[in-house]
Amino acid sequence: MESNYLFILQLAMVLGVAHIAGYISEKFKQPAVLGQIVAGLILGAGFLAKTEMIEVFAQIGVILLMFVAGLETDVDELVRSIKSSSLIALGGIIAPAALVFISIMLIFPSQGAASAIFLGIVTTATSVSISVQTLKEMDKLRTKQGVMIMGAAIIDDVVGIILLTLLVGVIRPGMSSSVQTVLLEVGALFLIITTVGFIVLKVIKFFAKKYDIEEKVIIGALVLCLVLAFISEEFGVAAITGAYFAGVIFAMTSYRHRVSHEMNRISAIIFTPIFFVSIGLDINIMAAIKAVGVGSLLIIFGSLGKVIGCGFGAKISGFNPKQALQIGIGMIPRAEVAIIVANLGLQMSILSEADMAATILMVLVTTLLTPSLLKWSFRREQITT
Questions:
Q1: How many structural domains are present in the chain?
Q2: pLDDT (tens digit, 9 = 90+) per residue, 127-181?
Q3: Domain for residue 204, yes or no?
Q4: How confident is the model at residue 1 (pLDDT cuts 50, 70, 90)?
Q5: What is the DSSP string of 169-204?
Q6: Is the model's pLDDT at 3 over the cut of 60?
Q7: Alpha carbon distance 79, 83 (integer Å)
Q8: Residues 6 or more apart from 310 whose CB is under 8 A from it?
Q9: CATH for 230
């Protein structure tokens, strides 16, 4: 008879393998996240199926990862860089979508325009969590490049939702709310985040004058992180957006370093490694390999589009070519958002099973390549300077 507590053993296996794989990856001078994703691929190939409990831990992992990223953000630099982040995000949306659409229409015209456009939009969504973890490991998250990657990723997430809504509304009018509704929802979300942030900062300042609230602030920070993550999902924006801004709110307090230290310990020991292993568990390698045709176009032109588009946005924002390359590489990875968008296309019969597999191949390759490319780009800068 199967034990009701088998999930405990599964979590122990995933956690143990994640830390061993991360250690081995670091020994080969690669980011730990790369080893953890590869470990997930190996486990998913026949040793372990992804369970609901692993999925829950993984979701908490990515939320905490982005919360810590928010805590470690230089808020003044983030505010100053809104214009630059917007230019980088815009380039990272237009270039990959256009390159993928054109390449598919030229090489696989039988796909049709609607499918090509949808696959173009699939390639616009950046999964910044992989870049964030890699930058954290290299102690580069608080650099100007790190701040740009974070800001641009948040913007392209929101713009991507609006583009998807537009496309769905045009192709299947009854299946999507209007663009105005989406814009209102996004605006309402950021109004809520701003209001909550203002109130939280005032409350902390008031009580800090009278009491020792350091321990209470840590608990409150975690609660706010989870609440804003939930609210973001309810408004149709990724949970990581709310979690990131919860971190930004507490980054403006005198408790930022203590909160960051405690949250980082919880995240790095338990939840974040499980998240990166779960990415590998999600990927069906055989299905991805079979879709190598369209998948190759998504990988090549989707990645080039991010490097060229984001790099161009960074260059005209005042970054030197090496820094622009680092930002472009940091925007390459795609993960859960791309798969969710492709799955919607599949449900609407715009994309085929092969297109879904091609998306998974893009996720697999960009996820595995980005940590090493990012490390190379920063090491190259150190060597040449």
A1: 1
A2: 777 788 788 888 888 788 888 888 888 777 677 766 766 666 666 555 455 667 7
A3: yes
A4: very low
A5: HHH-GGGS--HHHHHHHHHHHHHHHHHHHHHHHHHH
A6: no
A7: 9
A8: 88, 89, 91, 92, 95, 152, 324, 327, 328, 331
A9: 1.20.1530.20
What token pair was written down for 30?
């690669």
- Residue 22 is assigned to a structural domain of this protein: no
pTM for this one?
A: 0.74
pLDDT tens per residue across span 12-67: 999 999 999 989 988 887 778 878 888 888 888 777 878 888 989 988 998 998 89
Q: Stretch 346-374: mean pLDDT, rounded?
A: 83
| Integer angstrom CA distances of residue 114 from 101, 120, 133 | 10, 10, 35
CB 78 within 8 A of CB 141: no
Q: Using an 8 Å Cβ cutoff, are 368 and 38 in contact?
A: yes
Structure-token pair, residue 69: 């990223």
Q: In the numeric block, which tokens belong to residue 330?
A: 């940091």
Q: Which of 276, 272, 286, 282 is nearest to 342 (CA)?
A: 282
Domain of 52, in residue numbers: 31-384
Residue 359 domain-assigned (yes or no): yes
